[in-house]
Specification:
The complex is a heterodimer of chains A (79) and B (589).
Chain A lengths: L2 H14 L20 H15 L5 H5 L4 H10 L4
Chain B lengths: L3 H12 L6 E7 L7 H10 L4 E5 L5 H6 L4 H4 L4 E5 L2 H4 L3 H4 L5 H25 L4 E4 L20 H17 L4 E4 L1 H8 L1 H4 L2 H7 L8 H16 L5 E4 L10 H4 L12 H16 L3 E6 L3 H10 L10 E6 L4 H12 L6 E4 L3 H10 L4 E2 L9 H6 L11 H22 L3 H8 L1 E7 L5 H10 L12 H9 L3 E10 L2 E15 L2 E9 L8 H15 L4 E6 L18 E5 L4 E6 L11 E5 L4
Parallel strand pairs in B: 1-2, 1-3, 3-4, 4-5, 6-7, 6-9, 7-8, 9-10, 11-18, 14-15
Antiparallel strand pairs in B: 11-12, 12-13, 13-14, 15-17, 16-17
Classes of the chains: A mainly alpha (79), B alpha/beta (589).
Chain lengths: 79, 589
């Protein structure tokens, strides 16, 4: 498991209030009832604060799973 | 600074910690829930832990007007009403430039009128303090470069609306302006809102500034809920000036207009500002007293001089002892003191010996002293009364009185030479705020220690079955302000009860209480009363008045551990006004 994947899961744990062990490597938005649009705004803030990147509004709409988030971050040169 | 994820994590830990919290209900024209983690973290940091509840956005009237609403089910300890003009009138900024001056002012005024009516409706449902955001100009505007210079522009009109809002809230009990515009300005309007967050989720505040906004809300909620501190006790060496007086001498102190002395001079100026807001300054320093007085008198750059300090404790005794002496000298509880000292060991000593004293954690760099004090909640008074502004001066005048007392041959001569003048009257608009303040803070000379809301005081004052009376004292050395409050209520027939009788302990031992009792007796006589029912309800602090009624010829009616009630008939010569005090009766408000 990549380190980025691990850090993303920790962020999701902070935003959703779920223990990190319950967030799988391939977890998606459908797995969590409270992963709603408000959580996505918090996730956007959390990701930017954690990785020092700036995401676009369109990126925010794509924060739908651990893998998608990792892909967006990889595009931004985060590894 | 913590990242957003860290703040969310800290907030979860704090919420699970079991620390008692107060419920803050938030009504807003935007989604405010994003502030929850920051509000939790910042309020815990201030020692005033909040658990926020957020109403669905833009539902002000629905939530406030219905007694069965989710809002009132929360039983909030405080409310924050945050209404932004661009949310409740989205076309305002775009249409206003085309309107004539009258129509423009009316349209903007409608937003304020709506806000005020929401506050008034909330006030009828709860006694909790209400914070009300003032207005910041919308930032998504084109062509507004010269708006600040145009009298009819939205930014100009909002300045007037904010002033009007402040006046209206002043007339509503326990409703206070929350300086939203101030927070936006401190951050910069362009940076305050992150357009992405706004469009994604109606989040009005960028992630980087949420802790700051939350801290401002938490500080305001604390300031309107708790009693303010009364005194600030200051160390000297490396706190008020750089260097060590005993080693470096007066000439070697770091203090002046150039760095590094300028940092200490600015700090002294800020402390002088606190004194002007009614806080008493005092010194607790491990130094020779004579050297300290010399430094205060002779250093050319000193802002704070001997006259600015209500007490100076300079000795080699432990600081907790100095703090206790200062509290005693100023007639304050140690719990109303703030201790400011650069030395971590002294701070720890005071914390250990006197846990009631607030101790501010100063950073190692003196540049950070000001910011450290900015976050002390007890230094923000929501309302400055005339008595607050003059408080420090009044303590100085006390010193002149003490000098007179030392030279007078007996008490009678001393009291005569004081040339006291007492104004007496019934509560009105100009006195109610101070009366309310005294009712809620007087502990020692207070026969019943009954605390009342402002509205309750007003109700008794307006009732034919009640009287709310006051006494204001001045003497040869200055004005002591409004110092006595009495509340009379008709008990039955011609018997009137002294529901409340209290006096500022600064004027004890001058027969002022007898003058006030004589005035109260006169009021009862005028109302057709023939006897006074007095009550003493003991508290740990009210022992100075435990014999008040006994020594004035009252007879005990009933006695329990909670209270003793007394009775005495009024007679033409009792109670008599003392000869050493001139009487001036004030009619009307």
């Amino acid at each position: 498991m990549s380190q980025v994947n691990q850090r993303v899961r920790q962020l999701l744990s902070d935003v959703l209030g779920v223990p990190v062990e319950q967030i799988g490597e391939k977890a998606t938005r459908d797995d969590f009832q409270n992963w709603d649009s408000a959580a996505n705004v918090q996730l956007l803030m959390a990701i930017e604060g954690e990785f020092g990147v700036t995401l676009s509004v369109d990126d925010a709409a794509d924060l739908l799973s651990v893998e998608l988030i990792v892909a967006i971050l990889t595009e931004r040169g985060v590894s | 600074m913590s990242t957003p994820a860290e703040i969310m994590r800290q907030a979860r830990t704090l919420k699970a910690s079991g620390v008692p919290t107060r419920k803050l209900a938030v009504l807003s024209s935007f989604t405010a829930g994003f502030l929850e983690p920051s509000l939790v973290v910042e309020s815990h940091g201030l020692g005033f832990a909040l658990s926020p509840w957020f109403g669905p956005f833009n539902q002000f009237e629905q939530l406030v007007l219905s007694p069965a609403s989710e809002l009132w089910a929360q039983q909030p300890d405080a409310l924050w009403i945050a209404m932004r003009v661009e949310d409740v009138d989205p076309r305002l900024a775009s249409e206003l430039p085309a309107l004539d001056a009258k129509a423009a002012a009316e349209r903007v005024g409608r937003v304020r009128a709506r806000l005020v009516s929401v506050v008034k409706a909330a006030r009828e449902k709860t006694k909790a303090p209400i914070l009300v955001s003032n207005f910041a100009p919308p930032s998504a505007v084109l062509g507004g470069l010269f708006d600040a210079g145009a009298p009819g522009s939205l930014p100009s009109l909002l300045l007037a609306e904010n002033a009007a809002l402040a006046r209206e809230l002043d007339g509503i009990a326990s409703a206070h302006v929350f300086d939203w515009a101030g927070v936006v300005a401190a951050v910069g309007a362009e940076r305050f809102t992150d357009p992405r967050l706004w469009h994604l989720g109606r989040v009005v505040c960028a992630a980087a500034h949420q802790p700051r906004l939350a801290r401002a809300v938490a500080r305001s909620a604390a300031a309107v809920s708790l009693a303010a501190l009364e005194g600030v006790v200051l160390d000297l060496d490396n706190t008020l000036w750089g260097g060590v007086l005993g080693d470096d001498g007066v000439g070697g102190l770091v203090l002046g207009d150039d760095h590094p002395g300028s940092v200490f001079k600015q700090f002294q100026l800020a402390l002088l500002g606190l004194r002007s807001r009614g806080f008493l300054l005092a010194i607790a320093s491990k130094n020779e007293r004579a050297t300290v007085l010399e430094a205060l008198a002779s250093h050319p750059e000193m802002v704070l001089r001997q006259e600015h300090f209500a007490a100076i404790e300079a000795s080699w005794d432990p600081k907790p002892l100095a703090l206790q002496r200062i509290a005693q000298q100023l007639n304050l509880g140690v719990d109303s003191l703030l201790f400011v000292d650069d030395n971590p060991v002294e701070r720890a000593t005071v914390r250990a010996a006197l846990p009631q004293v607030q101790v501010v954690e100063l950073p190692a760099d003196p540049l950070g002293y000001l910011d450290a004090l900015k976050d002390v909640p007890g230094l923000d008074r929501p309302k400055l009364l005339a008595e607050d502004k003059r408080r420090a001066e009044m303590y100085r005048e006390d010193e002149a009185r003490e000098a007179l007392e030392a030279t007078a041959s007996d008490v009678g001569e001393f009291l005569t030479k004081l040339k006291m003048v007492a104004q007496v009257g019934l509560a009105g608009p100009s006195t109610l705020e101070r009366i309310h303040q005294l009712i809620n803070k007087t502990n020692q000379f207070n026969l019943t220690t009954r605390r009342y809301e402002l509205d309750e005081v007003k109700r008794v004052a307006a009732s034919p079955e009640g009287r709310v009376a006051w006494l204001r004292l001045s003497d040869a050395y200055g004005d002591l302000g409004l110092v006595c409050v009495g509340i009379l209520k008709r008990a039955s027939g011609t018997r009137w009860e002294i529901d409340t009788l209290l006096m500022s302990c600064r004027v004890m031992g001058r027969q002022v209480e007898d003058a006030f009792l004589a005035y109260l007796g006169g009021l009862v006589r005028e109302a057709g009363g023939t006897e006074l029912l007095g009550v003493y309800r003991p508290t740990p602090k009210s022992t100075p008045v435990k014999d008040f009624y006994d020594v004035r010829g009252f007879t005990v009616l009933a006695q329990s551990s909670a209270e003793t009630s007394y009775l005495r008939a009024l007679s033409p010569d009792w109670p008599a006004w003392p000869q050493v005090i001139e009487r001036v009766e004030v009619k009307g408000p």
